[in-house]
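Minimal example, chain plus glutathione.
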Amino acid sequence: MGDRKHDVYPWLYDLNPQGTVPVLKHGNHVITESLVCNEYIEEVATFTPYLMPKQPNLRAEIRMLNSFLSSDIVPNFYKLLLQDTTEQSKIQQRLISSLAVLTKKMESLSADGPYVLGQQFTLADIALLPFVERIMIVLPHYRNFSIPATKEYERLLNWYSIVQQRPSVIESINQSLGANNASGASSRISDRKSFLIKAYAAYADNTAQSSTANSFR
Ligand SMILES: N[C@@H](CCC(=O)N[C@@H](CS)C(=O)NCC(=O)O)C(=O)O
């Protein structure tokens, strides 16, 4: 499967020998790693309001959160799909504790939100959304795992429902589905669920041969 992907997308491996996405080519520059791509786009574009605050302490907060996402939440998400049943309850516990840490962090950055840093939508929201979305959609389907609807996770769950309603988020999900903005919310949500559930089927039955899957086995 790895070799087949190499044959189908040789240009991807020319840009990124690891064969993973995202890959960004801007002029002669090739940027890999999603969180680095996010910062690069922010720096070359002139967004108003900025997606990366100007204050160094807030920039550091976003990077610390991103680092926690990459080192903790993302690996536990993949491991819960890939590891055999004997390991799963341990990983579920780890993931739920990590999500509690994340929620506490969000509360300390801004008690009421609505976004991670408060009123401003930033790169912290953009980095977090894809994996919280996967945890909310893919894990209940394959692993009977859900984030408890308790006070402890309230800030995170409220954030998730608000962020999903942002026009830019709706547009980007529609693009991933090949749908248009006129698609109703309920059909968009159910199409997105089907899309993600299908995308992770080979992870859930442990047959995925991607470099991402192999790195979390
Ligand atoms: N740390 C990398 C991870 C990249 C990654 O794992 N990408 C996945 C998609 S989300 C991928 O391309 N998997 C296919 C493969 O491993 O062949 C990032 O954040 O960009």
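The mean pLDDT is 94. Residues 19-22, 33-34, 210-212 surround glutathione (CB under 6 Å).
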